[in-house]
Records
---
Amino acid sequence: MIASDPLPSWRPGEIKSTILNFVQQIITPGSPDYQLPAERIAVFDNDGTLWCEQPIQIQIFFLLDQIKKLPVENPVLAAQQPFKALLENDRAVINTFTKKEFITLFLGTHTGMSPESFMGNATDWLDTSKHPRFQQLFKTCLFQPMRELLDFLKANEFKNYIVTGGGMDFVRAIAEEIYDIPAEQVIGSTSKVKYQLVDDLPVLTKLPELNSFNDREVKVENIGLHIGRRPLLAFGNSDGDLAMLHYTSAGEGKRLALLLHHDDAEREYAYDRDFKLSPCIEALEVVPQLPGGVIVSMKQDWQKVFPFEG
Amino acid sequence: MIASDPLPSWRPGEIKSTILNFVQQIITPGSPDYQLPAERIAVFDNDGTLWCEQPIQIQIFFLLDQIKKLPVENPVLAAQQPFKALLENDRAVINTFTKKEFITLFLGTHTGMSPESFMGNATDWLDTSKHPRFQQLFKTCLFQPMRELLDFLKANEFKNYIVTGGGMDFVRAIAEEIYDIPAEQVIGSTSKVKYQLVDDLPVLTKLPELNSFNDREVKVENIGLHIGRRPLLAFGNSDGDLAMLHYTSAGEGKRLALLLHHDDAEREYAYDRDFKLSPCIEALEVVPQLPGGVIVSMKQDWQKVFPFEG
């Protein structure tokens, strides 16, 4: 039996029981749903699932801060679109951007350096930058119930992966510190990298060219590439996660496909279909019909949202 | 201190001491070369490093067996080159193939199925197919000293990865059973895969198009993609591994870059520059000059080669 309460920030009820029972059945030898530790793969979206993605994704805040250096570093580029609009905080232009365009811009403007150098920059920024509404460091704007779930799964020999539409190196820079997930268990959008010798020493260099935009069905294709096993549990919050939830749910035996619904304007934000950068429309309809499909209500199912709440 | 002898199949001497001392320094808190468990990444080539690759790589034997079914399954294709030459065992033609051409052919002829189905086929074949000289199952033709090294590293909280020029799914089919390395720690050559719905259920399907030929500098680029950390230890046996060995060696602090030299015709094979599919020429010259670079002689440094030896 699972001792004490591994999920204190989850309110007692059907959803919490479903999660606890699922893990109990997977880990109990002799249970019809028992799985060996090697099979215990769990995949998590990041933006809006593990941490806050409002009013815009945290890495877009990072991008905007980086672009502020442009007028000094590269005045010619700074005068061109889309940089001009971003520098002038021109919402009319910014609001026309899709998530893929932001990611492409993001990957395109952090190039010519090694992944390690980029990760150093990202870590420095995350060490000091705060969320405009909560006035807390971005890196503390993660969801406490999700961190408890990650820890609970890890303690039961699950291997937790992040499968994010965000930039892989950006998330790798922080995943170990805030989620206890090592870099190699972060799958995300990537630019191409090139092996080259600099001063006779081999390094990898990030190129401006997009390699993989890790969204929708590409998330599943990259799960195949990086993991090679169908997950037992998947957790997302948008239509970009639906393929991954569907793929997980369709495996043999017991699976769990969880969708977080942001319905708590008071403690976090309430949004779904209208969030242009990452809408949740189809997923809210489809997930309840999937085997093991579960909608999680932030408002109802979470006792506590952020770790910094009293 | 490391108790008893974790590497009984390695002969006492300089090479064995170098490996034991390296691990001791990495794992000892307070040592100047101490590394946290999260940093302890070790990467291994597969063909010719972990298991025998002579007279041709094991997956080429698999390919040749699969192609024998062609005259029944696809007579038109069977009459075309290169299949005709392979079916007729026409060495004059076969010997003109490069490794990349074989891998491309290999990936191109195992398509239209899920990675899981393919891995099932590979496992079945490996369960029954024998090496022509040793008359032992191919899957037992692994190098006993290497298996001991993998176990020793794992016991000391290293994470072992295979970084192979061979097909990723072929090696994933067997890596857990014979090396205790899970699928997600196998990086290899890949075809593209596509997410699709079959009978309304989501599956991945292997496509004939090459995605990545994991050789030379691409091995390092894929280490960046899959791991995101510079390894502490790398082990290879050919020029295809040199970039990975160089990249590993060039990291800060203590590193080990090991090259296996096949110089034992009696117990295994003696070859280096003349093995067209995977020559070892430049690596034999460069590795001894790298920091932490070590040439391992099969003949001198290994007490035992295969697990099936008396």
---
Amino acid sequence: MGYALLDHSTDPPRILDCGIVETPRGVTAAERLLAIATALEHLIREYGPTAFAVERLYFNKNVRTAMAVAEARGVALLCAARGGLTVAEYTPQEVKLSVTGTGGADKKQVQRMLSAVLSLEAPITQDNVADAVAIALTHIRRAKWDSVVAAAT
Amino acid sequence: MGYALLDHSTDPPRILDCGIVETPRGVTAAERLLAIATALEHLIREYGPTAFAVERLYFNKNVRTAMAVAEARGVALLCAARGGLTVAEYTPQEVKLSVTGTGGADKKQVQRMLSAVLSLEAPITQDNVADAVAIALTHIRRAKWDSVVAAAT
């Protein structure tokens, strides 16, 4: 599971931390979920984020994988709720549209745009990490847009 | 989400508690999962169970429902891991086979068998609660069987 913490007070937003929540191999589903919860709670304590954005997934070719992903999503949502974070969900299409301007962009296009928009010295090449940064960026942009709209109306 | 706590030290096992984890209506997914975790943690503290058995589901006609169920399952598995409980998973077919003797039994047959096997004064008519009792009973039977096999070999 990829994660990213972005500071939205700078322009462009700054990546504070990102990576993969490592889960031990050859463990049970419950142990895997415990490792995810422990890691997320550690990140929430360390950085004190105020918002949590996560991918919304409806379909997956592999039902078994889809169930495992949904279980991890449930645990992540629980950690966010316990941490008092506001929660937002975005579909992959919304994320691609927000980051690249087109909902049909591929992963490489998203990664190139992240490098450009966030002025990264090195591109993010791990798919799960790039996805997490893209989702966080999408949420920052949506929140800014919402506040501009609210201020204007 | 139905739950049931059974005492396996008596014969037949005795239902200590069973019911539905109530979740508030019109709340977000994160708030729903938080309510489930809080309720399960309360039950684990109150009864101090040693084992946790849950339904294993691979398919659901409604993908949206399947995802919500898997998220709740993830939270339940996390609570079990945090509580130090051993975790077991059973498919609906395994549960029906264990309780009624046939994997194709319908819900009414399962409910009638639960009444008979557990010497219930009143039948359990709520599907989710009956499912939870049936899963717990399946686990007790499986654990007894395993211990008999282990003692004999």
---
Amino acid sequence: MKQTESSKTIGIGLLGLGTVGTGVVKILKSQGRAIEKKTGIRLALRRVCVKSLSKKRGVALDRRLLTTDPSDLIRDPSIDILVELIGGIHPAKEIIHRAFLNGKHVVTANKALLAEEGGSIFREAARLGRKLGIEASVCGGIPIIQSIREGLASNSISQFLGIVNGTCNFILSAMSQGNLEFREALRAAERSGYAEKNPRLDIEGVDSAHKLAILARLAFRTEVPLKAIFVEGISKLSKVDIQYASELGYVIKLLAIAKRHGRAVELRVHPTMLPLDHVLAGVRGVYNAVFLHADQAGDLLFYGKGAGEMPTASAVVSDIIDIAKRATGQADLKVRKSSPPDALPVRPMDEVVSNYYLRFQVEDKPGVLGRIAQTLGKNHISILSVHQKESHDSRSVPVIILTYEASEKNLRRALRAIDSKGGVRQKTVVLRVEK
Amino acid sequence: MKQTESSKTIGIGLLGLGTVGTGVVKILKSQGRAIEKKTGIRLALRRVCVKSLSKKRGVALDRRLLTTDPSDLIRDPSIDILVELIGGIHPAKEIIHRAFLNGKHVVTANKALLAEEGGSIFREAARLGRKLGIEASVCGGIPIIQSIREGLASNSISQFLGIVNGTCNFILSAMSQGNLEFREALRAAERSGYAEKNPRLDIEGVDSAHKLAILARLAFRTEVPLKAIFVEGISKLSKVDIQYASELGYVIKLLAIAKRHGRAVELRVHPTMLPLDHVLAGVRGVYNAVFLHADQAGDLLFYGKGAGEMPTASAVVSDIIDIAKRATGQADLKVRKSSPPDALPVRPMDEVVSNYYLRFQVEDKPGVLGRIAQTLGKNHISILSVHQKESHDSRSVPVIILTYEASEKNLRRALRAIDSKGGVRQKTVVLRVEK
């Protein structure tokens, strides 16, 4: 078969022209020729669906491409790939569904949709022989989805730890480096444009849980019920714990943690103490990173910008190119049939085992520490080290205990007993430790 | 078109059954079913070409698969993909050529061949519509090739810094952490199995130059004449410079450096001082990492095991799967036509600009330092800082000078003048500094 010398043209329909959509248009404009030279594929922007036709845009665009009706994209036979960048569950889900039915492949950055409805969307894409590109949904410009799906295709991934929310990492870096309380660091993030007006989804860990669900689905090939993920945000962290952690040689990061134990998986998002020489400890500011263990390839780290106009748009366009390459071949999309993912049970948080950092605020009286140690022991929790700190008020003394591995169930039982007795002045602070 | 429910079978011919080849067989055995489940592709090992039929192997293998004649693989119509793991230029090049002509795709880990003959091999693959998988040739288990080729397809890469030789990084880490001289650290690497019997290609930077050539070809889409790469190894490094660097807040790594300046490129391999908070500074032991800057995605780091049986075999098998996926589609391999790479000129080392660390061993006499500073100034080299160290012998005193950016040409001229005059006791030590 002779190669054709001319480029193939692939039609793009863009749904949403916010930050990322604008970035996509910029890349198509500035890199279009370079992409054609590299791949032999011409990417042609056919239609752009927006909320308002009159709004001023951050990029020059032929106004005749604009429409407010998604159906104009879905029904356009010259569009091969629909790029969904409107976010939210509805109507994004229905539009993607109709695009699939109309023979279009889809690229989306919609992590909430993928986390909540990923199972049915992937099944539908497979049933209809459509491609679904999701690189932009997790860690912006880092090609982590492709690396898990393809680069590590011959590997079983046994666990990964991810710093997947730039807002939280910025806040924690600011608390640590600037000795700030959470509220002050959040304000700094807002001033720098790294926190949204309503930052709840970020700081309470929900966004990280969405990304964990998407990554775990791919890494473990399992359905991930979002509700089964244990989620704890960073809004209750005190700078005093960050400081004590630092004195003990640790840094605190909001981690998305996934571990596979045979046929079960462990999925959790919470502030986590990491030793200072851990490869994730140096990931500062708005950077994201995923550290994973693959059985053949070993330990791997992927690090880069997790959000922002151009990094996320870069991921969208790499998905477009990937699908365009396959779409110009056609058959690759249709011949093969992979099995659907399993539904591995998620281990209940009670059964999760971890090392812990515990900060007790105790009365400076004889016997209190002994009672705490005794209660921990009764609950099968062994003490690794004890650190009594200088008191910041006259009423109580902070005591830090690092434990060996213990189950959440035993830990909670022990803390209920300790916190309800006399001698302890406030609810004990718990941080989980990874090595 | 209806999907076929049955798996496609792809035939593999394995040329070479050394460390990596054995790892490939292990993965095909242990992960074959999982790969089939994920991808719908059955990978069938058809023939294995070895030097000796009687040698004991590290993996159980049907002896009927073995042959000593590469032609048995090249002519076998049931083989779709030839995996070349014999290394060296000849006969690897000729075998790959014949495999292409016989309709086979090729996966290779042969970095020397790709660095020296990559241009003609890639051209031939493109001309004949064959795929060439090279993931295993650089950084073992890290999917860096795929990330550059596909994940960053919409980006221009402006520069990258790579720790791409595990032996050198192990030696430098040992020198730094164990306060060892080069020879002692090399022996430690040999004892740990991290240095080959003849480690010259590693320690003199040649292996890093091979990998730099392969990465630069992909990242910049240019032909890279291997001889145009400036190469300096680590065998002349003294622990005293590692110690002084550490006191100044730097660590020394052997870096493969590639920078693009418009239509020219800069390519060099040498020991490099990096600030301790640089993202590459924490890459220790046999780990590899590539830090790159992409115009859209921003700064990215890829980190993992750069060598070893299973990481490298993992990369080989991920290439096999990638090609198999496309091969079951067929058309994708043939329809598109990308342009050949450019031949960007390599900037001569004389014109390269860098910051420098200079260690002068001077007589402890008035006026010497002044003469050095004057000569540097005359050659347009500005001094950033001066550090006089305690003397280790009675005859000379080490003086460290960190410079602002200067050209290699000016630096060499200045050092020729300084080293040839009185007052300087030995050839001045030069280390380049990256930020």
---
Amino acid sequence: MRLLEEKIRSEGHVLPGNILKVDGFLNQQIDIDLLDAMGREFAALFQGTRVTKILTVEASGIALACITARHLGNVPVIFGKKHKTLNRDESVYSTPIFSFTHHTSYDVTVAKRLLLPGDRVLIIDDFLADGKAVRGMMDLIAQAGARLTGVGIAIEKGFQGGGDKLRAEGVPVHSLAIIDEMNGEEIRFRPQP
Amino acid sequence: MRLLEEKIRSEGHVLPGNILKVDGFLNQQIDIDLLDAMGREFAALFQGTRVTKILTVEASGIALACITARHLGNVPVIFGKKHKTLNRDESVYSTPIFSFTHHTSYDVTVAKRLLLPGDRVLIIDDFLADGKAVRGMMDLIAQAGARLTGVGIAIEKGFQGGGDKLRAEGVPVHSLAIIDEMNGEEIRFRPQP
């Protein structure tokens, strides 16, 4: 998506440790024009897959998930909650997710009554690096006996390989911008149709 | 706002300790039709106040803030980040906020370059109880030398008094639903114009 790539080039910052800082338009301040354009793009990519719910993880995936839902017939959005300690509550599905950014593991939970066997679930998130968050959400969907219809990501760090591994397994992952190389302030995007 | 009050009556649950559980439509699963109606209502309430930015705190205020921004000329949204430990980063404004729900104190931060002296800031949040989160955000706005234009809240627990104290100090607080009494499953809303 040209608009997002240009925004990353002009306002993103590459920090040591392969961190891409996009807090000026996505991660702390949210550019609503861009957000709306991304939501419209996801809706176009996943329309026809009969999505009944969108799943994301707090906090920065929430905005994108809600705007996408607006463009996808106002389907409900569910966000997984992060807990630092293992959650043994019988009323929730739970999965451990390791955060690349924070170098720590969270337990992510969703109330069982919100994710149902008949649900067709679209996963939306702002970042995909090694794919651990997406796999965690896929685990929650599987626990519920629901069905994954697709994965929509704003920014994929292609060089970390998580997205391509998922695609190789047949998971329909669509990322609006895929970064194949980050070198100082130099960013190379993967050409996409 | 009639629609929100009806939703709280039909789908909310009052738990011991004056906790109102609304995770079926606001706090974990988000009803996008309702969210959009709330955003439109906030935009109507605060149009004419020349808002340049909307401020909220992660995680559950983000959806409401972004949808409100969509109806208010696509102004940027900023969300404060919660930290369990005191943040001594020179590049951020920081304020301690005590969470009524989690019985713990967070340090909430916003990058200094995102909140500017000329900004006219609308605070949006899902809940207002004793008003600590709103006062924390007001503190961040004051640290930046920016100006508060108003406070928009989805659900105010009127019986905890935080909203009325702010109003008595001249802060323009608008809540879409004000609960003056919760007694078991019985909920009494404050009549509003």
